[in-house]
Design a protein that fits this description.
Blueprint: E1 2-7, E2 15-22, E3 28-35, E4 40-46, E5 49-56, E6 64-71, E7 78-85, E8 89-96, E9 99-107, E10 114-121, E11 127-134, E12 138-145, E13 148-156, E14 163-170, E15 177-184, E16 189-192, E17 202-206, E18 214-221, E19 227-234, E20 238-245, E21 248-256, E22 263-270, E23 276-283, E24 287-294, E25 297-305, E26 312-319, E27 325-332, E28 337-343, E29 346-353, E30 361-368, E31 375-382, E32 387-391, E33 398-400, E34 403-407, E35 413-422, E36 435-439, E37 445-449, E38 454-460, H1 464-467, E39 474-482, E40 488-496, E41 504-506, E42 511-517, E43 526-528, E44 533-535, E45 542-546, E46 552-555, E47 558-561, E48 571-580, E49 586-600, E50 610-614, E51 621-624, E52 634-638, E53 645-648, E54 652-658, E55 667-670, E56 674-680, E57 688-690, E58 698-701, E59 706-709, E60 715-717
Parallel strand pairs: 34-40, 42-49, 49-51, 50-52, 51-53, 52-54, 53-55, 54-56, 55-57, 56-60
Antiparallel strand pairs: 1-2, 2-3, 3-4, 4-5, 5-6, 6-7, 7-8, 8-9, 9-10, 10-11, 11-12, 12-13, 13-14, 14-15, 15-16, 17-18, 18-19, 19-20, 20-21, 21-22, 22-23, 23-24, 24-25, 25-26, 26-27, 27-28, 28-29, 29-30, 30-31, 31-32, 33-35, 35-38, 36-37, 37-38, 39-40, 41-44, 43-47, 45-48, 46-47, 48-49, ...
InterPro entries: Cadherin-like_sf, Ig-like_fold, VCBS_dom
GO molecular function: calcium ion binding
Protein name: Cadherin domain-containing protein
Length: 731
């Protein structure tokens, strides 16, 4: 066991001294604070859960002498609380599941007209019964239903009155008094309804014998004799004014005339059933405490530091349907916001945010055990994005292999692996969230992660970025590993470059054009694979292609279109090319073989029908004969990307031509008249219209606009780039 003492010599905190006690493993088991205002607070901690809390006020700066709290070891919820006030009154309260269950109040110094009060509460914290023993030995037992007074029994134990007992019956829904039953000393019994007061009058009673806790009580009655208000001046100098409606209390306002209380004014409002609905308390130190209730259960509590003396601006608490705390948010004077969240009254998380950016950190997040509220870890995010996770002992939670390295050209697939661990003694989760496969943050390779912390990394060696490295150059790839309780770390692999690789290196483009498909596709188009692969030693290489499409043949490194009819359709054909040098070193590269459209659709295409021609992402050659799209037909051409050439014969009608937004030179050729044609994605100064072969037609393009004239009609150019005058394109 070790002890650590901290002194606030610079007076930066609300305490002057803090003494912390740790066990042999370094876990906190006790803590004592001496505050600047003289208070002393001592905490007892078991397995990270606070089980005891004691306060003392040796400087007598508060209206209490001592406060003691006991908490459940398994849940961290309050189970007992005892308070001794300076006035000699002692409170002793028990709790069940964090909700008050009973309270015993004793007048030890005999300062009041009662000796003791015992209150019990239901599962929601609403009062269920009260038992009050008065100094004159009368005993008052009151029962409640859902917080509303139901029945009251008064017994004259000392025989100081002419009756032996009284029973008051109340309406369970409103709390209104219904009947009073009195048993007199002579054995007779009287049952009557509450008498109406004097019509429209105010009746004042004085406690000249000091038998009650009040000095005077003034009751106001309306014209029907129903009480509407009551003003009471109490022995302790406070005054209360109660308002009624239909016999049900609606509001009570208290004022502290003698300044003997820590507050100077408080107001309570009640719902139609007589249950408390809200309260507003103004404290002597400038705090304002506002609370709201639903069906007698507290839902919210807000404290505002109106005097600006506490170091914080507001404290807001919210409660669940059972009255247990659900959240607590503190806004500090400097703009920091600290929010605590709870489940079932047990602390789950605390988040402190640096709102004004006054600190070197962005946020500090504390995570607690969901079952007992013991602190598990602290997650700190710094302004530069750095994140740290430490347990309650200040130890880093994730340890082990978070860094690894691979070397360019060490193998066709660069590999690294290691294991990360959870520090011994950590009270949270010890396993990780598994990852079957995830791309690295920079996209060079992929990572895997097992639940036990073992991870692997693979990157293809012949990537352009990796092959571009020289000795001394590096690349990094990383991923985030996370435990099942949300503690994370970054695993980073460094890829080191080398200047030489004794083997083939891919240096080409992953997309290669190999020919065209269709009835007029020319055979014999070829692609030399030696233009795609290099070797530092200049060694000759041999090639093999997996998944080679029909109609294409590989001979001595030359890929040739040998049967154009077998290449039935245009498109991209993925293949895997393996290059091997004389020493047997090889690499495999995935390529996409692009086959373009080269079709002649002949005359009368789309003469009485709607026809569509779709190009590819490479340069296409599309020829359509005379009378295309005539009568009731139409022709739609989507050239796609690439430098396309599209030709129409004479008498073309009802055309829709998309040249593709590709910045490539597209060429439109009209061999005769054109009517009702729309040309989209026309790129001004790039694309070309050719009508020179038609007698009398002219076309001009000066880089800012294009003009067609003589014989061409109904052509509309849309989606143009660099357009200066739309009229230039409507001919």
């Amino acid at each position: 066991m070790t002890t650590q003492t901290a002194l606030d010599t610079a007076d930066q905190y609300a305490w002057s001294q803090k003494v912390s006690v740790f066990d042999a493993q370094g876990f906190l088991i006790g803590e004592t604070f001496t505050f600047d205002d003289g208070r002393i607070r001592t905490s007892t901690i078991v397995d990270g859960v606070r089980v005891g809390l004691k306060w003392s006020d040796p400087a007598d700066g508060f209206d209490w002498t001592s406060r003691t709290s006991v908490y459940d070891k398994l849940t961290g919820l309050l189970t007992f609380q005892g308070v001794m006030l300076d006035s000699g009154v002692h409170f002793s309260s028990t709790y069940n599941g964090g909700v008050i269950a009973s309270r015993i109040t004793s007048d030890i110094s005999d300062a009041f007209a009662w000796t003791s009060m015992v209150h019990t509460f239901d599962n929601f914290g609403c009062i269920a019964s009260s038992l009050v023993t008065l100094d004159d030995r009368r005993i008052v037992l009151t029962d409640y239903v859902d917080g509303i007074k139901s029945q009251k029994f008064v017994t004259d134990v000392a025989d100081g009155y002419s009756w032996s007992s009284k029973i008051y019956d109340y309406d369970d829904t409103t709390g209104s008094l219904l009947t009073i039953s009195t048993v007199f000393d002579d054995g007779s019994t009287s049952i009557h309804q509450p008498a109406s007061g004097p019509l429209g009058q105010i009746i004042t009673l004085l406690d000249s014998a000091n038998a009650f806790s009040w000095t005077s009580r003034a009751t106001t009655y309306d014209a029907s004799g129903a009480v509407v208000a009551q003003t009471r001046l109490n022995d302790d100098g406070t005054q209360s004014i109660t308002q009624f409606s239909g016999g049900v209390r609606t509001q009570v306002t208290w004022t502290d005339g003698d300044n003997g209380q820590p507050w100077h004014e408080k107001t309570f409002t009640f719902d139609a059933g007589g249950r408390v609905a809200g309260s507003d308390v103004m404290m002597d130190d400038g705090r304002q405490i506002v609370q709201t209730y639903q069906d007698g259960v507290r839902t919210m509590r807000t404290v505002t530091d109106t005097a600006d003396i506490a170091g914080w601006a507001t404290i807001t608490q919210q409660f669940d349907s059972e009255g247990l705390i659900a959240s607590r948010s503190v806004v500090s004077d400097n703009g920091d916001v600290t929010t605590r969240t709870y489940s079932g009254g047990i602390l789950q998380e605390k988040l402190r945010s640096d709102g004004p950016d006054a600190h070197s950190w962005e946020s500090i997040r504390s995570v607690y055990d969901g079952d007992n509220g013991a602190l598990l870890y602290v997650h700190r995010t710094l302004d530069d994005g750095t994140q740290t996770f430490v347990d309650v002992r200040g130890k880093a939670i994730i340890t082990g292999g978070t860094q690894a390295g691979v070397v360019e050209d060490a193998s066709a697939v660069l590999q690294a692996m290691d294991t990360i661990d959870v520090v011994a003694g950590y009270r949270g989760a010890s396993d990780f969230t598994a990852i079957a496969s995830i791309a690295g943050d920079n996209g060079y390779g992929t990572f895997t992660l097992g639940t036990g912390g073992s991870w692997t990394y693979e990157a293809i060696n012949n990537q352009t970025a990796i092959q571009g490295l020289n000795t001394g150059d590096t690349l990094t790839d990383s991923f985030t590993a996370t435990t099942t309780d949300d503690v994370s770390t970054t695993v980073t692999v460094t890829i080191a470059g080398t200047d030489y690789f004794d083997g083939p290196v891919f240096a080409g483009d992953v997309v290669q054009a190999v020919g065209a498909a269709g009835s007029t596709a020319p055979a014999g188009h070829s692609l030399d694979l030696n233009t795609l692969f290099t070797h530092d030693d200049g060694e000759a290489m041999t090639y093999a292609i997996a998944d080679l499409p029909a109609g294409l043949t590989l001979t001595n490194g030359i890929l040739t279109v040998t049967d154009h009819t077998a290449v039935a359709s245009a498109g991209d054909y993925p293949v895997a090319v393996t290059a091997t040098d004389a020493g047997g070193t090889s690499i495999t590269q995935s390529l996409s073989l692009a086959v373009a459209v080269h079709n002649d659709f002949g005359d009368d295409f789309g003469l009485n029908s709607a026809e569509t021609v779709a190009g590819t992402s490479f340069g296409d050659t599309i020829t359509i004969g005379s009378d295309a799209g005539g009568n009731t037909g139409s022709v739609t051409v989507d050239g796609g990307a690439g430098a396309d050439t599209i030709t129409f014969g004479d008498g073309a009608e009802n055309l829709s031509i998309d040249l593709g937004a590709d910045a490539d030179v597209d060429t439109l050729i009209f061999l005769g008249t054109v009517e009702n044609a729309t040309i989209s994605n026309w790129e001004q100064g790039v694309d070309v219209v050719d009508v020179a072969s038609v007698a009398g037609w002219t076309v001009s393009d000066d880089g800012t606009d294009t003009t067609l004239s003589d014989g061409v009609s109904d052509i509309t150019f849309v989606d143009t780039t660099g357009l200066t005058d739309l009229g230039d394109f409507l001919v």
